Fold these 2 entries.
Entry 1:
Amino acid sequence: MWGRRGMNDLLFELPLPALFDFDVCLEYLNRSPLECLYRTDQQGVTRYFILDNMPVLIRLTVPEESKLQVTLLHGTAPGPEAQERLARYIMEWFDLGRDLAPFYRVAEADPLLQPLAQQHRGLRIVGIPDLFEALCWAILGQQVNLAFAYRLKHQLTAAYGKSLEWGGQTYYEFPAPEVFAEVELEELFALQLTRSKARTVLEVAALIASGGLSREELLAKPSPEAAEQRLLEIRGVGPWTSQYVRMRCLDDTTAFPVGDVGLQNAVKFLTGMDRKPTPAELVQLAQPWRGWEAYATFYLWRALY
DNA sequence: TTCCAGGCTTAAC
DNA sequence: GTTAAGCATGGA
């Protein structure tokens, strides 16, 4: 067929920064067997994308140090513009544009972070570059254990996302917000979402689909706090959700979800406290981390999951 | 059954 | 502005 390429085409390579370790990031990606939006193995991660309305299966590997290879496993090779978008997505996914040296200077001087920085050296905040996906993941994760949050995401994705069978596996794209235009609350209840989660997911979907909310708009705000204020206007989006989105979608290294029970448990565990720290105590503890609270949180999570 | 989980809203002070 | 109670759902 004209224009068809062979299997396993190398699309492009991305240069990798210092203080990046792909294997450590893969460990993070591999943290739950219930993850439905990508598949990891020893060598890399495979994910389904829709580029130029064409489904493609993309694989990321780092065969040699300092170079990330982006390979097309299935589908038609996207055009230059779509490849540029894919490259940007991957940069954001693994926070590749960040100079992590300042964080490591902070971490290596900190009794709580030092062992984590050593054990997970080269870990980046693995982002959720798509705003709708990031908001949904946070909403689904409100006040439920992680296993159940993954189950909800899988339910939502399988019900409304596009999928591709390849190599005996099913790969999914997270559903686009437009898909939810005609969806009734009751449909989401059937997927085990609570009334609040269902309402908020539909509200966010409608906002984003109509252009009333976008990542670009949030990034254009004068400060991360201003972006957070915008998110807090949405009913069902509270402090934890907005800080979580700042951290994983808006590239904000200062986001600090002090209400996060996982963060609280990690600090309790690592410090030997007999109770969970209060948000105020976490703020106090984070004084030396100023500017890198989100990275500190991400590394602290690794102590638990 | 009870308690907890990568919370949010509302109502009362 | 801060705090308490109510809300839901599955897992251990």
Entry 2:
Amino acid sequence: MPKNKKNDIPLPSLSRLLSVYRLLEQLERDNESSVSSSQLGKILGYKADSIRKDISYLGEVGNFGGGYEVQKLKTHISGNLELDKKRKTCVVGLGRLGTAILNYDDLLRNGFIVVAGFDSNINRLETIKTSLELFPAYEITETVRKKGIEIGVIAVPAMAAQETADRLMNGGIKGIINFSPVAIKLKNSVMIRNIDLLGECMLLSTLLTFEENSVK
Amino acid sequence: MPKNKKNDIPLPSLSRLLSVYRLLEQLERDNESSVSSSQLGKILGYKADSIRKDISYLGEVGNFGGGYEVQKLKTHISGNLELDKKRKTCVVGLGRLGTAILNYDDLLRNGFIVVAGFDSNINRLETIKTSLELFPAYEITETVRKKGIEIGVIAVPAMAAQETADRLMNGGIKGIINFSPVAIKLKNSVMIRNIDLLGECMLLSTLLTFEENSVK
DNA sequence: TAATGTGAATCGTTTCACAGCG
DNA sequence: CGCTGTGAAACGATTCACATTA
């Protein structure tokens, strides 16, 4: 198990680097040829220092005195983080949220190939018009295994979230994006990122309350 | 501007406290009368120490030797963080994601009263069946001001996100939940929480890549 | 000169370890 | 004795400050 230096990138840095990468795509489209850490920071809302340190985790790439070449930096980040990697993905729960995700083109553009959708309501499967293959929920484990799906998006009601996760994990899923507002019990080395709308709303509301109370 | 001790709660602690609060609601429904920090931690995936410190930011409430009373702790958190506060909310962008949010009952149950929906496509407004009031996007500023809406959810395409935010802020919005994958430039004291599906997917994928590379 | 890259200092959060209490 | 509550230590990330280089 060779120590990989990149494993030592702090998670917040990694997250910022991905934002930088997406901004670079934008700048490239706008035909910008170079950009400085302070420009990147200004747009993304981070300190220039921070951006520079983040980038430096991946080795030297900038021009002393002249900022970064957009294309070069983009390739540098993509190469180091292997952003060209393709990941087979599935979505479980095809309500409004689930179908929104099925149809989210940016995923495909960034290497996430949605190869299956699942729902426990078999009637619903027939009403959704999509070119993707749809399956009943009880076929999750089998399908994930058969197709070699790596990432599963959970968009089912809270009550069904753990069972859904178990089915995905039994099929050998590697990572989960969980939109349900419950904590999932994970098997061994499965990774998860939680996206919790209600939690974010409550956090925002609480922060507003603090602000209101401290001004009063 | 009296210093409010609660302003000093670290953001991660605040976020955990809100998770604890929601778990307590669940435990209350299950008629559990008491719970320890280690039980809470186990379920939510945090260290018991951390949970105890989080709770202690709000003052003493537990029973030495006997854990926390579910109901009492719940009231304690809710009281301190003023979780009974109601917030008028609106959703901009009524595609699949936007309409999913309009219909997300958990929001209402937790004090977020969705009082308006907006979309730039006027024809679309007529096809959506809901009891909520819907408006064209150019009426955002006026409606936010008139109704005293505090929180705005942005569920529009990336291209329209900044303009949407500006309209919300011009109407006096206090907080924004941003589902678009772009950084929003904020006015003065407006607060924002970003929910970035593509970003989370890319982060997850990168973490998986690191794991794969370090095992090899 | 302008902006990168980076050790060192600082800051904030988590973890530790144990005193305090029912 | 078990579990809370909390100072103190440890840890990790950010910010600082400046040497470095085109």
